[in-house]
Amino acid sequence: MQELLALAVSIAHDAGALAATRRAEGVTIAASKSSLADIVTAADREVEDLIRGRLREERPDDGFFGEESGAEPGTSGVTWIVDPIDGTVNYTYGIPHYAVSIAAVTGEPTPAQWTAQVAVVHSPAVGETFTATRGGGAWLGDTPLQVSAPTDAGALLATGFGYDPAQHEGDLERVRAVLPFARDLRRAGAASLDLAYVAAGRLDGYFEKNLQPWDHAAGGLLVTEAGGVIGGEPDGRPGREMVIAAGEETFARLHAAIYRAPFIAFPA
Ligand code: LIP
Q: Could you confirm whether 83 is annotated as catalytic?
């Protein structure tokens, strides 16, 4: 586990340095995906190529599942779930809030079936690296992370709005449903950092619909290793239908507000 973590941190730092260099040189949009707003830059592709190449070199039998270059099964039982630049729109606009997100999972590489073993979320613009290993806790550098406890002041919540405008009415309904117990809401634009901030106690909770597996694979382990809960739908697991992350009490309130029903935890 520690070897996998050390490799993931080393690769994330090199990938983050490349992303920052390309950002400083000027970013070009290479294509749009699910909608005109859902963009991919040349840097996204170049950074994922770096990550994929390093992993192929160091761990040739592992599987890979990346946002920009797709999936390739392995034979070792370990699959790397990678978002080379999470917060692509921020990155393109020059907003210094984006991350390299790398997770190593075992089992089938789908959110409903994988078991996350190692997680790294690296924020190049800020110089912060969040890490976790299964059973080994979550860390920011050498500082252990712990999710927040509720306060009478209300919960500082974060969310995101999908690239598909047709989803936005539902997004706003969910915001209306949770605001009664929120102190405020943040929409920062990078799911992996929203999850890392929940793990660090910088946010009290996060929820978002339509996330891709690579958006939450690493951040989800940060949250659970920091004493929090990651779930959503379908079947109470985080998935495209919904990702919810928070400390236990705030999680239950978020789930009840969003689904107007109590949350039944799935078996760990
Ligand atoms: C983004 C997420 C963000 C979400 C965006 C997009 P990308 O990932 O990090 O939370 O609101 O719609 O999915 O596309 O920057 O890798």
A: yes
Q: Which atom of ligand 1 is nearest to the CA of 89?
A: 15
Q: Could you tell me the distance, in angstroms and rounded to a whole number, from the CA of residue 152 to the centre of ligand 1?
A: 31
Q: Which residue has a Cα nearest atom 16 of ligand 1?
A: 86
CB distance 64 to 72 below 8 Å = yes
List, for residues 120-156, the tens digit of each pLDDT value.
999 999 999 999 999 999 999 999 999 999 999 999 9
| Distance in angstroms (rounded) separating the CA atoms of residues 84 and 48 | 5
What's the pLDDT at 28? 78
Q: Probe ligand 1: pick from 88, 159, 240, 242, max atoms within 8 Å of CB?
A: 88
Q: Where are the alpha helices (DSSP H) in the chain?
A: 2-25, 42-58, 88-93, 168-178, 191-199, 213-225, 248-259
Report the b/e string of 234-246 with b at 16+ CB within 10 A: eebbbbbebbbbb
Establish whether 215 is a catalytic residue: yes
d(CA 43, CA 88): 10
CA distance 58 to 44: 21
58 belongs to the catalytic site: no
Per-residue pLDDT of 160-211, as tens digits, reads 998 888 889 999 999 999 999 999 999 999 999 999 999 999 999 999 999 9
Check if 92 is active-site: no
Q: In this model, does residue 268 exceed pLDDT 50?
A: no
Q: CA-CA distance, 193 to 71, in Å (whole number)? A: 23
- Which residue is catalytic, options 44, 48, 62, 83? 83
